[in-house]
């Protein structure tokens, strides 16, 4: 499955509108979508606010968004840490979903956002927690190995599989005031009870195929781990485990 098609499919699984109910949006807002992906959230915001600026590191995503943008949307290809937030259109709100977890130093980014936001400006973050291990059987022979892999990935700055659990403390450290928090967001792909749908299983299989670091760690056992993981999330015994967290804060 091509990555852009995979991401487009995933967008249909999220009730993005429901998240916006907890954000103090104003029709005069300029919203920065940090990690805009294929642009679905940006498009929703564009119908409710004055302007939306999407930023993503993936050139293919940015090109796709620019080809399908609304008149009040702009999309920029950039590394988040290279963005000079003070040089963008004066934004009054920031949305970021599944993006800051890729940063080795998210606090630096949040400090920059806080400095650039006006008083009363808002930030909303949605991200995963225990991304892989949280969807495994706890008695799996691979559980502790995967937990260690996730922890080491965070320490090395490659990817934070548990960023969702850290985002609240990081926002507070940056100076923000928390106004809403949901630590157990229901999601048909990332945090659900019972068997996964077939299309969700397909995306999880593609995701596992891309985990080169875990493949290297498990070696010849990776195929067995992958089969066990997919069988578990396809079973009635699979349970949500606070794997998706959403938070809103203001300056």
- Largest sheet geometry: 7 strands, mixed
Mean pLDDT value? 94
CATH topology name: Rossmann fold
The CATH superfamily name is Vaccinia Virus protein VP39
Strand order of the largest sheet: 3-2-1-4-5-7-6
Structural class: alpha/beta
> How many E-type strands?
7
End-to-end separation: 41 Å
Main CATH class: Alpha Beta
What would you report as the Rg, rounded to the nearest angstrom? 18 Å
- H/E element string? HHEHEHEEHEHHEHHHE
| Helical stretch tally | 10
For the structure shown, list the relevant keywords:
251 residues; alpha/beta; Rossmann fold; 10 helices; 7 strands; globular
Task: Summarize the structure in words.
By secondary structure, this protein is an alpha/beta fold. The protein has one domain (3-250): Rossmann fold, CATH 3.40.50. Helix content is 39%, strand content 16%. It is built from 10 helices and 7 strands. The protein has a 7-stranded mixed sheet with strand order 3-2-1-4-5-7-6, sandwiched between helices. The relative contact order is 0.15.
Architecture blueprint of SSEs:
Layout: H1 3-11, H2 16-20, E1 30-34, H3 40-46, E2 51-56, H4 59-67, E3 73-77, E4 93-97, H5 106-116, E5 122-128, H6 143-156, H7 163-174, E6 177-182, H8 198-210, H9 212-218, H10 222-233, E7 244-250
Parallel strand pairs: 1-2, 1-4, 2-3, 4-5
Antiparallel strand pairs: 5-7, 6-7
């Amino acid at each position: 499955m091509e990555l852009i098609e995979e991401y487009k499919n995933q967008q249909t699984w999220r009730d993005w509108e429901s998240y916006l109910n907890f954000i103090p949006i104003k029709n005069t807002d300029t919203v920065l979508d940090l990690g805009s992906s294929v642009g679905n959230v940006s498009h929703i915001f564009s119908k409710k606010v004055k302007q939306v600026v999407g930023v993503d590191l993936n050139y293919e995503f940015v090109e796709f968004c620019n080809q399908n943008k609304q008149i009040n949307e702009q999309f920029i290809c950039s590394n988040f840490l290279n963005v000079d937030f003070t040089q963008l259109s004066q934004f009054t709100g920031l949305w970021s979903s599944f993006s800051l977890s890729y940063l080795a130093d998210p606090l630096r980014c949040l400090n920059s956002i806080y400095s650039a936001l006006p008083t009363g400006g808002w930030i909303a973050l949605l991200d995963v927690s225990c991304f892989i291990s949280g969807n495994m059987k706890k008695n799996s022979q691979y559980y502790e190995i995967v937990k260690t892999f996730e922890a080491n990935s965070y320490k090395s700055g490659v990817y934070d599989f548990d960023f969702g659990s850290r985002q609240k403390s990081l926002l507070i450290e940056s100076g923000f005031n928390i106004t809403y928090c949901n630590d157990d967001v229901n999601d048909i792909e990332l945090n659900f009870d019972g068997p996964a749908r077939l299309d969700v299983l397909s995306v999880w299989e593609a995701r596992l195929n891309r985990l080169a670091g875990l493949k290297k760690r498990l070696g010849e056992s990776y195929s067995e781990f992958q089969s066990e993981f997919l069988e578990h999330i396809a079973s009635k015994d699979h349970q949500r485990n606070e794997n998706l967290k959403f938070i809103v804060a203001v300056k």
